[in-house]
Amino acid sequence: MSDTALPVVSANAAFTAPNGPLIATGDLHIHVGGAEPLSQPRASFCRCGASAKKPFCDGTHRTSGFVDAGEAVPAASIAELTETGPVTFTPAPNGPLLAAGPLTVQNAAKQTIATTTRAAFCRCGASANKPYCDGAHKAAAFEG
Prior knowledge:
Blueprint: E1 13-16, E2 22-30, E3 38-45, H1 61-64, E4 87-91, E5 97-106, E6 112-121, H2 136-139
Parallel strand pairs: 1-5, 2-4
Antiparallel strand pairs: 1-2, 2-3, 4-5, 5-6
């Protein structure tokens, strides 16, 4: 057994499905358009940029040619989350999916790659830093 303390895992988590969506679980508040935020325990968010139900996944990744195995590498140092409560997801117009609140981010192997209270996730499928946004949506002329 190691003397190194493991990071506290948030009740809110998001992981990348291989070649598929970003799946979030926990106390989720999701802003879509000008409507009241949706509150739900699970959501699948589009990562390929082709869903007709953006920001949600509609399965289009299966036929759109989207490829990302979800093998993001854990950060060198993963901080302990001290904040608790819901995480809010808000799609930026023609840009990333913004997350605000305590969140554990995992790769497809369910390894924790980060713990954070703010993140910008790629929605266009073009980021070279998946699952995070790197601004590639501008060059890709992403709309959504």
